[in-house]
Amino acid sequence: MTVTTDDGVRLWASASGRGEPLVLCHGGPGLWDMFEDVAALLDDLATVIRWDQRGCGRSERCAGPWTTERFVADLDAVRRHFGPARMALLGHSWGAQLALAYALAHPERVSTLVYVAGTGIDPVTDWHPAYEERLLARLGEDPERLARWQELPKDDPERAVLQWSAEFEDRARAPEHAARMADPWFGINTECNTALNAEVRHGWGTPELYAACRALDLPVLIVDGAGDIRPRSAVDSLERTLPRADRVTLPDAGHLPWVEDPKGFREAVATALR
Question: AB hydrolase-1 domain: which residues (predicted)?
Answer without folding.
Answer: 21-261
